[in-house]
Amino acid sequence: MSDSLLTVVIPVYNEEPWIFENIGIIRNYILKTGIRYEVILIDDGSTDNTWQVLQKLAESYPGIKALRLSRNFGKEAALCAGLEAASGDACIIMDSDLQHPPELIPEMVRLWKEDGYEVVEGVKALRPQENLVNKVGASLFYSILSKFSGFDIKQASDFKLLDKKVLQAWRSMNERNTFFRGMSAWVGFKRVSIPFSTKNRAFGESKWSLFKLFKLAINAITSFSSLPLQIVTIMGLIFLLGSLILGVQTLYMKLRGIAYSGFTTVILLLLVIGSALMISLGIIGTYIAKIYEEVKGRPRYIVAERVESRIPES
Ligand code: UDP
Ligand code: MG
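^ thats the input. predicted complex w/ uridine-5'-diphosphate below
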């Protein structure tokens, strides 16, 4: 047995019926690496009996730590809670629904240990049979996001192995509103990606509603890009140019004695400028809201309970 420690962070939200079995499967693949491990399970304020199952897991297996957040803070916050509790030399982040194939764990660990990569990223190869809204939504989301933020994270997933150093760098990022995929791309380091195909969720439903996805998109864009703010400036410039041309034309007509017969231009201008102003204010408002949230400096999550398994490793 080697003396380095692997932490596996898994956020869990309302997964009571299958979580016990899933963690068992994941654990078997971790055991194959032969490395010492800890599994940190974060109950993201589940409303079913997930927490009881996590406690049972901690009683059944060694090396399990479970945290219960005081309410549903969302996957991003749950990940933060897990990563901050992680003490391993490397840390794997994965979903609890087996959509991130645990078969890849030994390979990820090998790439980290033997080839010295500091970030091993799981990259989605293809997404079979999702409904149209999700498909269009996801591709639109990622194409807008990669345009706006300069990161190509279209196929990126939250399935990753991070070295301790990377985790340290991640911890030094203080923002309250986190977008894990963007942040772990931003820190850099020596990285390699391994493709995996996402299977459909074996049990239950995806916990992402369209609204949650939209919120994530806005958060991702405003966290990683100030381009929308600059677009406002560019739009302002374009309108200035337009109004200059129109102003000259109006004056010319006036001097020639050909007056306007209607208010068409006025109305059009009012509409266009009005909507441009409102959009601009909206964008600025979004950023100010973000600043407000960051300034408040609230904790990203609140832990309500913790359990740890006391079974010695054999
Ligand atoms: N999850 C969470 N909090 C939430 C929503 C989801 O901790 O508010 C967890 C969930 O239990 C799962 C992972 O995040 O382990 C991914 O969720 P899901 O499978 O629903 O998302 P998808 O695979 O559709 O992206
Ligand atoms: Mg899933």
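Strands lie at 5-12, 36-43, 64-69, 90-93, 119-124, 156-163, 191-196, 303-308.
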